[in-house]
Write a structure and sequence with these properties.
The protein has about 210 residues and is an all-alpha fold. It contains 7 helices and 2 strands. The protein is about 50% helix and about 5% strand. Helix 2 runs antiparallel to helix 4 and helix 3 runs antiparallel to helix 4. The protein is rod-shaped.
Amino acid sequence: MAYIVPKLTDYSAAALEEAASDCIAACVAEASEVRSESHLKAFRDRWMARKNGILTQINDLWLKGAPKNAKREVGLRMNEVKTAVTVAVTKAEVLQLELATATRALAGSLDISLPGIRRAIGAEHPVIRTMHEIVSVFQKLGYSVAEGPVVETDYYNFEALNFPPDHPARDTQDTLFIAARSRSRSARGCSCARTLLRCRFEPWKRCGRRSAS
């Protein structure tokens, strides 16, 4: 049977203690019967609703109707009831959350034999991240990224960029010769030359800027 707040006629200490104990016991009993979110909401509203909750009814029926010499004792008992009800509602919420979590875990296709998700080690360098963002912007505008080998032939490293074999500007380049016609790339224009040749453009137009890595 659902708990109904009684109207007190006896405000002795023993009577108040019995009434408070009955109220707390009823709240704990109802909390143990909560099995779903809807039940939890109904239980919480029944006891803690501001307009017509049981705590509000206790305040109206017990405290407001108590004689002046008993109001202090009634207030103490009301605080005990309020604390006990708050604890019971909190425990019911925690139990309901644990029950819902367990139900979702059982319903899902969780295979504990699968390897876990590895956390990423380290972070992308701010300069590299900025470079990727810039490249992404230009790719959306229709540009593409051209890549070339680190070890380049003499043609793409110098001649295609308008540096013939006897050009004096070759002396200013820090070039590591790896083979007879291969060397480490000394300018970023090598990939440009390769790409433009594939596109049937002429990459050997004159340029007055010394391009070096």
